[in-house]
Amino acid sequence: MGFGKQDLDLVLVPTGLLIMFVYHLVLLYRYLHKPDTTFMGYENEGKKSWVENIMKDKEKNVSTALTVTGSSTTASIYLATISLTLCSLIGAWIANSSYAVFESNIIYGDTRSSTMSIKYISLLTCFLLAFSCFVQSTRHLVHVSYLISNPSCDIHASTVELSVIRGGELWSLGLRALYFALNLLLWFFGPIPMFVSSIILVIILHHLDFNSKEYGSEVSQTTKRNGQRSV
Fold this sequence. Notes:
Blueprint: H1 8-33, H2 39-56, H3 58-96, H4 113-149, H5 157-187, H6 191-209, H7 217-230
Protein backbone atom coordinates (compact mmCIF):
# COMPACT_ATOMS: atom_id res chain seq x y z
CA MET A 1 0.00 0.00 0.00
CA GLY A 2 1.29 3.44 -0.96
CA PHE A 3 1.17 6.64 0.98
CA GLY A 4 -2.23 8.17 0.19
CA LYS A 5 -3.69 11.56 0.90
CA GLN A 6 -5.62 10.15 3.86
CA ASP A 7 -2.31 9.30 5.52
CA LEU A 8 -1.27 12.96 5.54
CA ASP A 9 -3.52 13.60 8.54
CA LEU A 10 -1.63 10.96 10.53
CA VAL A 11 1.66 12.79 9.91
CA LEU A 12 1.06 16.51 9.51
CA VAL A 13 -1.67 17.03 12.11
CA PRO A 14 0.22 15.45 15.07
CA THR A 15 3.40 17.22 13.94
CA GLY A 16 1.64 20.59 13.83
CA LEU A 17 0.08 20.08 17.25
CA LEU A 18 3.44 18.90 18.63
CA ILE A 19 5.10 22.09 17.40
CA MET A 20 2.44 24.16 19.18
CA PHE A 21 2.67 22.15 22.39
CA VAL A 22 6.47 22.26 22.51
CA TYR A 23 6.49 26.01 21.93
CA HIS A 24 4.01 26.61 24.75
CA LEU A 25 5.93 24.29 27.09
CA VAL A 26 9.06 26.34 26.45
CA LEU A 27 7.07 29.53 27.01
CA LEU A 28 5.64 28.14 30.26
CA TYR A 29 9.10 27.17 31.49
CA ARG A 30 10.48 30.65 30.79
CA TYR A 31 7.43 32.29 32.35
CA LEU A 32 7.86 30.29 35.56
CA HIS A 33 11.65 30.46 35.85
CA LYS A 34 12.61 33.56 33.83
CA PRO A 35 9.47 35.72 33.75
CA ASP A 36 11.35 38.85 32.67
CA THR A 37 12.15 37.21 29.33
CA THR A 38 8.44 36.90 28.45
CA PHE A 39 5.95 39.65 27.76
CA MET A 40 3.53 38.09 30.23
CA GLY A 41 6.12 38.53 32.97
CA TYR A 42 6.87 42.02 31.67
CA GLU A 43 3.17 42.90 31.84
CA ASN A 44 2.91 41.44 35.34
CA GLU A 45 5.54 43.90 36.55
CA GLY A 46 3.45 46.72 35.13
CA LYS A 47 0.35 45.35 36.83
CA LYS A 48 2.15 45.14 40.17
CA SER A 49 3.30 48.74 39.82
CA TRP A 50 -0.25 49.79 38.92
CA VAL A 51 -1.75 48.07 41.95
CA GLU A 52 0.85 49.56 44.29
CA ASN A 53 0.16 53.08 43.02
CA ILE A 54 -3.60 52.55 43.25
CA MET A 55 -3.45 51.21 46.80
CA LYS A 56 -1.27 54.09 48.02
CA ASP A 57 -4.21 56.48 47.71
CA LYS A 58 -7.17 54.18 47.18
CA GLU A 59 -9.86 56.77 47.85
CA LYS A 60 -8.50 59.07 45.17
CA ASN A 61 -7.78 56.39 42.57
CA VAL A 62 -10.75 54.07 43.08
CA SER A 63 -12.75 55.45 40.13
CA THR A 64 -9.80 55.03 37.75
CA ALA A 65 -9.13 51.52 39.02
CA LEU A 66 -12.77 50.46 38.61
CA THR A 67 -12.79 51.85 35.07
CA VAL A 68 -9.72 49.78 34.17
CA THR A 69 -11.02 46.58 35.74
CA GLY A 70 -14.45 47.17 34.23
CA SER A 71 -12.95 47.43 30.73
CA SER A 72 -10.99 44.21 31.25
CA THR A 73 -14.08 42.44 32.60
CA THR A 74 -16.13 43.56 29.59
CA ALA A 75 -13.48 42.23 27.20
CA SER A 76 -13.42 38.86 28.99
CA ILE A 77 -17.21 38.59 28.93
CA TYR A 78 -17.24 39.47 25.23
CA LEU A 79 -14.73 36.76 24.32
CA ALA A 80 -16.50 34.25 26.58
CA THR A 81 -19.77 35.01 24.77
CA ILE A 82 -18.13 34.53 21.37
CA SER A 83 -16.61 31.21 22.47
CA LEU A 84 -19.93 29.95 23.81
CA THR A 85 -21.74 31.04 20.64
CA LEU A 86 -19.25 29.18 18.47
CA CYS A 87 -19.67 26.10 20.68
CA SER A 88 -23.43 26.26 20.08
CA LEU A 89 -22.96 26.60 16.34
CA ILE A 90 -20.57 23.64 16.21
CA GLY A 91 -22.96 21.58 18.32
CA ALA A 92 -25.83 22.37 15.96
CA TRP A 93 -23.63 21.53 12.97
CA ILE A 94 -22.70 18.17 14.50
CA ALA A 95 -26.37 17.43 15.20
CA ASN A 96 -27.26 18.08 11.57
CA SER A 97 -24.36 15.88 10.39
CA SER A 98 -23.94 18.00 7.27
CA TYR A 99 -20.32 17.22 6.37
CA ALA A 100 -20.86 17.51 2.61
CA VAL A 101 -18.90 20.73 2.31
CA PHE A 102 -15.76 19.29 3.91
CA GLU A 103 -16.08 15.82 2.37
CA SER A 104 -15.64 16.98 -1.22
CA ASN A 105 -12.70 16.02 -3.39
CA ILE A 106 -11.37 19.58 -3.14
CA ILE A 107 -10.13 18.86 0.38
CA TYR A 108 -6.76 17.11 0.16
CA GLY A 109 -6.77 14.83 3.17
CA ASP A 110 -8.87 12.41 5.17
CA THR A 111 -12.56 13.31 4.75
CA ARG A 112 -14.14 10.22 6.30
CA SER A 113 -17.03 10.74 8.72
CA SER A 114 -15.04 9.45 11.68
CA THR A 115 -12.25 11.94 11.00
CA MET A 116 -14.75 14.77 10.59
CA SER A 117 -16.23 13.89 13.98
CA ILE A 118 -12.78 14.11 15.56
CA LYS A 119 -12.26 17.53 13.96
CA TYR A 120 -15.55 18.86 15.31
CA ILE A 121 -15.01 17.46 18.80
CA SER A 122 -11.44 18.85 18.96
CA LEU A 123 -12.60 22.28 17.82
CA LEU A 124 -15.51 22.22 20.27
CA THR A 125 -13.13 21.30 23.11
CA CYS A 126 -10.88 24.28 22.37
CA PHE A 127 -13.80 26.71 22.35
CA LEU A 128 -15.16 25.25 25.60
CA LEU A 129 -11.73 25.59 27.20
CA ALA A 130 -11.49 29.19 26.00
CA PHE A 131 -14.95 29.91 27.41
CA SER A 132 -13.99 28.45 30.80
CA CYS A 133 -10.77 30.48 30.95
CA PHE A 134 -12.48 33.75 30.06
CA VAL A 135 -15.22 33.13 32.65
CA GLN A 136 -12.62 32.47 35.35
CA SER A 137 -10.71 35.56 34.26
CA THR A 138 -13.91 37.57 34.69
CA ARG A 139 -14.37 36.11 38.17
CA HIS A 140 -10.92 37.25 39.28
CA LEU A 141 -11.34 40.72 37.77
CA VAL A 142 -14.71 41.17 39.52
CA HIS A 143 -12.99 40.15 42.74
CA VAL A 144 -10.38 42.86 42.10
CA SER A 145 -13.17 45.42 41.83
CA TYR A 146 -14.54 44.36 45.21
CA LEU A 147 -11.10 44.54 46.82
CA ILE A 148 -10.28 47.98 45.45
CA SER A 149 -13.70 49.48 46.24
CA ASN A 150 -13.63 48.08 49.79
CA PRO A 151 -13.35 51.09 52.15
CA SER A 152 -11.32 49.03 54.64
CA CYS A 153 -7.58 49.68 54.80
CA ASP A 154 -6.79 46.11 55.91
CA ILE A 155 -6.48 44.81 52.35
CA HIS A 156 -2.86 44.44 51.28
CA ALA A 157 -1.64 45.29 47.80
CA SER A 158 -0.30 41.74 47.41
CA THR A 159 -3.84 40.34 47.64
CA VAL A 160 -5.03 42.62 44.84
CA GLU A 161 -1.90 41.84 42.78
CA LEU A 162 -2.59 38.12 42.99
CA SER A 163 -6.13 38.49 41.65
CA VAL A 164 -5.03 40.86 38.87
CA ILE A 165 -2.24 38.52 37.75
CA ARG A 166 -4.47 35.44 37.94
CA GLY A 167 -7.08 37.19 35.82
CA GLY A 168 -4.42 38.08 33.26
CA GLU A 169 -3.07 34.54 33.19
CA LEU A 170 -6.51 33.05 32.59
CA TRP A 171 -7.10 35.63 29.86
CA SER A 172 -3.88 34.50 28.17
CA LEU A 173 -4.89 30.83 28.49
CA GLY A 174 -8.20 31.63 26.82
CA LEU A 175 -6.39 33.30 23.94
CA ARG A 176 -4.07 30.29 23.59
CA ALA A 177 -7.11 28.02 23.36
CA LEU A 178 -8.41 30.23 20.54
CA TYR A 179 -5.04 29.95 18.77
CA PHE A 180 -5.31 26.16 18.90
CA ALA A 181 -8.90 26.44 17.67
CA LEU A 182 -7.66 28.43 14.67
CA ASN A 183 -5.30 25.59 13.78
CA LEU A 184 -8.03 22.99 14.15
CA LEU A 185 -10.39 25.11 12.07
CA LEU A 186 -7.90 25.10 9.20
CA TRP A 187 -7.69 21.32 9.56
CA PHE A 188 -11.17 21.18 8.01
CA PHE A 189 -9.55 22.37 4.78
CA GLY A 190 -6.87 19.69 4.95
CA PRO A 191 -3.79 18.77 7.00
CA ILE A 192 -1.45 20.92 4.89
CA PRO A 193 -3.11 24.28 5.78
CA MET A 194 -3.20 23.19 9.41
CA PHE A 195 0.50 22.30 9.45
CA VAL A 196 1.52 25.52 7.68
CA SER A 197 -0.59 27.62 10.04
CA SER A 198 1.07 25.92 13.04
CA ILE A 199 4.52 26.98 11.85
CA ILE A 200 3.42 30.52 10.97
CA LEU A 201 1.56 30.92 14.25
CA VAL A 202 4.56 29.77 16.30
CA ILE A 203 6.81 32.25 14.48
CA ILE A 204 4.37 35.11 15.13
CA LEU A 205 3.83 34.14 18.77
CA HIS A 206 7.59 33.86 19.35
CA HIS A 207 7.95 37.43 18.16
CA LEU A 208 5.12 38.58 20.44
CA ASP A 209 5.73 36.47 23.55
CA PHE A 210 9.43 36.83 24.23
CA ASN A 211 10.85 39.97 25.73
CA SER A 212 14.38 41.38 25.75
CA LYS A 213 13.67 44.63 27.63
CA GLU A 214 13.96 45.11 31.35
CA TYR A 215 10.92 46.62 33.03
CA GLY A 216 11.47 50.31 33.73
CA SER A 217 14.48 50.57 31.43
CA GLU A 218 12.71 52.97 29.05
CA VAL A 219 11.60 55.17 31.94
CA SER A 220 15.13 55.28 33.39
CA GLN A 221 16.63 56.10 30.01
CA THR A 222 14.13 58.93 29.51
CA THR A 223 14.92 60.26 32.98
CA LYS A 224 18.65 60.22 32.24
CA ARG A 225 18.13 62.08 28.96
CA ASN A 226 16.00 64.72 30.65
CA GLY A 227 18.63 65.11 33.34
CA GLN A 228 21.36 65.55 30.76
CA ARG A 229 19.30 68.17 28.89
CA SER A 230 18.64 70.11 32.09
CA VAL A 231 22.37 70.16 32.86
